[in-house]
Recover the amino acids of this structure.
């Protein structure tokens, strides 16, 4: 019998494909990051058995244990807030970091990457809604600092990431996604670096995000089910 995870994954992939088709985009232009936080390695195995290989985690310690139990060919994305004292361990386990949120953290990550001989792929998180409770660069700050960020030797800056304010429905997130894309276009124009990737969209709004240009959608609940506890006191 097909597991719930495999069935959910199939359904989400169909919805990703339909959103791509509405936006006249190639389905391969969107990476589905299956957010497995709070779920055990067995749940990830169900997704792997269904052919999925890209996963997101937001809590380092939990992720480390899980990653060690799973096949080595999987691609792990760190989507949570990054604490300085965990940068080294995050770089050792994860291929992509989604939430670099200050020049200071970026410089430090660059330094550690050099020590480790790595060239990590990262997103810069932007606080599009200006919420005090959320991490991320303010748009003004990233405009002022983008040249310094792009000058870091080791970080491969893929583009921008955001977690927009919670709204009543998927449609209400659309203007935040448009804001992130417009900011990216502006930074790309000014810097001459394409910043081609946009990490935006979660279970409730990933289709809208794809219509507005998301290249990485981070989907947890819709694949693995409702989480029994919250992670880092941030997102449920
Ligand atoms: C948990 C989490 C997600 C997934 O959220 P769902 O609503 O379960 O899809 C996406 N992005 C980040 C940063 C998260 O912490």
């Amino acid at each position: 019998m097909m597991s719930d995870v495999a069935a959910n994954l199939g359904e989400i992939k169909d919805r990703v494909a339909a959103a791509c088709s509405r936006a006249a985009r190639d389905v391969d232009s969107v990476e589905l990051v299956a957010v497995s936080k709070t779920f055990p390695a067995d749940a990830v195995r169900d997704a792997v058995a269904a052919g999925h290989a890209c996963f997101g985690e937001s809590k380092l310690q939990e992720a480390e244990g899980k990653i060690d139990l799973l096949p080595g060919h999987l691609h792990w994305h760190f989507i949570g807030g990054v604490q300085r004292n965990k940068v080294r361990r995050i770089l050792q386990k994860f291929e992509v970091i989604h939430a670099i949120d200050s020049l200071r953290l970026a410089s430090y990550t660059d330094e550690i990457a050099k020590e480790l001989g790595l060239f990590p792929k990262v997103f810069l998180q932007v606080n599009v809604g200006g919420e005090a409770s959320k991490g991320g660069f303010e748009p003004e700050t990233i405009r002022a600092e983008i040249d310094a960020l792009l000058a870091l030797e080791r970080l491969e800056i893929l583009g921008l990431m955001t977690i927009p304010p919670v709204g009543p429905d998927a449609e209400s997130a659309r203007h935040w996604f448009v804001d992130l894309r417009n900011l990216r276009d502006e930074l790309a124009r000014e810097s001459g670096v394409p910043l081609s990737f946009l990490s935006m969209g979660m279970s409730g709004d990933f289709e809208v995000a794809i219509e507005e240009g998301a290249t990485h959608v981070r989907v947890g609940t819709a694949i693995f089910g409702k989480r029994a506890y919250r992670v880092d006191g941030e997102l449920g």
Notes: Residues 4-224 form a domain with the TIM Barrel fold (CATH 3.20.20.10). Residues 35, 37, 58, 79-80, 163, 202-204, 218-222, 235 surround pyridoxal-5'-phosphate (CB under 6 Å). The two ends are 29 Å apart (CA to CA).
